[in-house]
Write a structure and sequence with these properties.
Blueprint: E1 3-7, H1 12-23, E2 28-32, H2 43-46, E3 56-59, E4 62-65, H3 67-77, H4 87-120, H5 126-147, H6 160-166, H7 172-175, H8 183-195, H9 197-216
Parallel strand pairs: 1-2
Antiparallel strand pairs: 1-3, 3-4
Helix pairs in contact: 1-3, 1-6, 1-9, 4-5, 4-6, 5-8, 8-9
GO molecular function: transferase activity
Family: Belongs to the GST superfamily.
Organism: Pseudomonas vancouverensis
């Protein structure tokens, strides 16, 4: 039975699943959900995921939302080294939880403030942006220190933690997030693009989707 993954190719969360699945060599059917057209709130989609968010995986009777949960499911189902054994497994999970609690949340706030408001024709709140930047810089400093002398987040091989923590880079150029102040983070991100073809491929697809979408609103970056 074919695995179906619902998502918008401009979504950083969908990119995490898309890239991880491609890296694992998993064949799946992509069912597009256009977020800008409100398709995630359509009755047909809400019947699959009442939360109304993407991505969503459907594998027979298994229906899962949330990108990290989907990636964990796929890695276990296909016994992928993206979810390693032993202590490295728990370190991978630690960084995935850290990313959700402390890292990606602020990039989401920044996207809504700088991009979402721009689409709606509303000015961003500079005080809120500065608050978000303060939190991003604080967490980035810790991540940058962790990455000193390391190839990837957990040891010398790519894991699900890398896909989780790298997700905010999907919108870095549009939100002007100050990750470039942290050399170890930037070097790690470049390694992902150089050494993980699926991460580079999905970046190109996401950028194309976002550029076309924003052009329709007369927005350029």
């Amino acid at each position: 039975m074919t695995i179906s993954i619902y998502g918008d190719s401009g979504s950083g969360s969908f990119r995490r699943v898309w890239a991880a699945a491609k890296h694992m060599g998993i064949q799946f059917e992509h069912t597009p959900v256009d977020l800008l057209k409100g398709e995630s709130q359509a009755t047909e989609f809400l019947a699959i995921n009442p939360i109304g968010r993407v991505p969503v995986l459907v594998d027979g009777a298994t229906v899962l939302s949330e990108a990290s949960a989907i990636n964990l499911y796929l890695a276990e189902k296909f016994d992928s080294p993206l979810l390693p054994k032993g202590n490295a497994r728990y370190e991978t999970l630690q960084w995935m939880f850290w990313s959700a609690e402390h890292w990606r949340v602020f990039s989401s706030y920044l996207f809504n403030e700088r991009i979402g408001k721009r689409v709606m024709g509303v000015a961003e709140d500079p005080t809120l942006v500065e608050f978000i930047f303060t939190n991003i810089r604080s967490n980035a400093a810790m991540l940058d220190q962790h990455l000193a002398g390391k190839t990837f987040i957990v040891g010398n091989q790519v894991t699900l933690a890398d896909f989780d923590v790298a997700a905010p880079f999907s919108q870095m150029a549009r939100t002007k997030t100050p990750y470039d102040e942290f050399p170890n983070i930037m070097a790690w991100q470049q390694r992902l693009l150089d050494e993980v073809p699926a991460w580079k491929e999905t970046k190109a697809l996401l950028d194309d989707r976002m550029d076309r979408a924003f052009a329709a609103f007369g927005i350029t970056f």
